[in-house]
Amino acid sequence: MLSVEIKPDWFLRDARGNATALPALLSLLAAVSETGSISKAAVQGRMSYRHAWGLLQQFSEQFGAELVHKVRGQGTVLTPLAEKLMWADRRINARLSPLLDSLASELQQELVRVLAADAQGVRLTASHGFAVAALVAQLRNEGVTVDINYRSSTEAVAALARGECDLAGFHLPVGRFEEAAAASYRPWLNEERHAFLHLAYRELGLFVARGNPKGVTGLADLARRDLRFVNRQQGSGTRVLLELLLAEQGIDPAAIVGHDSAEFTHAAVAAYVASGMADISFGVETAARRFGLEFIPVCRERYFLACDRAALDQPLLAAVAAAMTHDRFRAALADLPGYDGALAGSRADLATLFLAGQTLSGQT
After folding, report:
1. CATH code for the domain in which residue 44 is found
2. Minimal CA–CA distance to 134: which of 341, 281, 322?
């Protein structure tokens, strides 16, 4: 099956305008960081030692700064500049991946339509997340064509109500805030028209640098003036939940340094903290672990996929539901820190939250 991938790329230019492409260099630096040796990094990157050394020397000569140096007892280590380049690359990928994945999916669908006019695919709109990415991978491995469009949870359920997608991803906190969080989805969902598939439970909490140098203990610390916070975008379910938590504790969002910032994924805010550009953020545990951050648990939530009830009995969505119950997929979710996929693919009863007869996209 035809597949389209789009990856971000970036360059550095010196004072004379000469460009240095970074992908190969960044891959080498990552291997040096892991192995503590240029020769071992070269082997890992399937290049000669001479070529690896040449990449490092070329950069040093062009920009007048070293990327690696020897430390007794540690071997070859990265300089602060090299570390910053690697964090910058991770931040670029974290911020742009949802956009590029959506664009790649659109282009793939267009090409598939040309090559196979009768081909059908599942249209999935959801906020960018680790469980959703795992599901897309599972479906594509099974030969199911997936047209993924990453948007906020509110935009996703609105797209479902308008018939723009087959599945919409959204999430609700477990416990006392479930009812309030569901309010933003009620204009678009109801139990009579829609069915809800359980995707996963996931843990949310605060992200802070390794070792917790600022001594953060909980949400109350967000009001501290010495902490720089990085937030999710308006309309994000995670941001809605955070504002409910802040209101409960009597914290004025305007008092939080950086509250008006906006990043579009959990990985993006984690990268922000990991790079030292912020001191604290709020998101899912997997993102914190992947960026080597400390994670302070705050709450748990459930992630669902909504669809039209009538469509769930059709072959395409039936295949999706079956894939979600597969042991391999549930094992993939279990490998994500903070995720629990034991109920993946099962039908969820949300009648008390989305009662039939409520307003749906301006209609009753």
Report:
1. 1.10.10.10
2. 341
Which residue segment(s) compose the domain that 42 sits in? 1-116
Chain mean position to CA 28: 25
Do 210 and 241 contact (CB within 8 A), yes or no? no
- Give the up-direction half-sphere exposure of residue 118: CA atoms within 13 A in the CB hemisphere: 0
**CB neighbours (10 Å) of residue 52?**
23
Which residue in 123, 150, 141 sits closest to 308, CA to CA?
123
What the block records as the tokens of 359 is: 């307003």
Q: Which residue has the tokens 């079956």?
A: 322
Residue 350 maps to a domain: no
Instruction: Please say whether the beta carbons of 135 and 90 come within 8 A.
Output: no
> How high is the pLDDT of residue 156?
95
pLDDT tens-digit map of 26-74 = 999 989 998 999 999 999 989 999 999 998 998 888 888 899 988 877 7
DSSP conformation letters of 226-285? T--EE-BPTT-HHHHHHHHHHHHTT--GGGSTTTT--BSSHHHHHHHHHTTS-SEEEEEH
Please report whether residue 355 resides in a domain.
no
Q: How far is CA 174 from CA 100, 121, 179, 200, in A?
A: 32, 32, 10, 12
First to last CA, the chain: 42
The tally of domains found in the chain comes to 2
Residues 112 and 143 placed together within one structural domain of the fold:
no
Kindly tell me if the per-residue pLDDT of 274 is higher than 60.
yes
Same domain? 162 vs 262? yes
* Cα dihedral: 39, 45, 49, 55 (round 10): -110
Do 334 and 171 meet the contact criterion of CB atoms below 8 Å apart?
Answer: no
Rounded CA-CA distance 70/90 in Å is 25
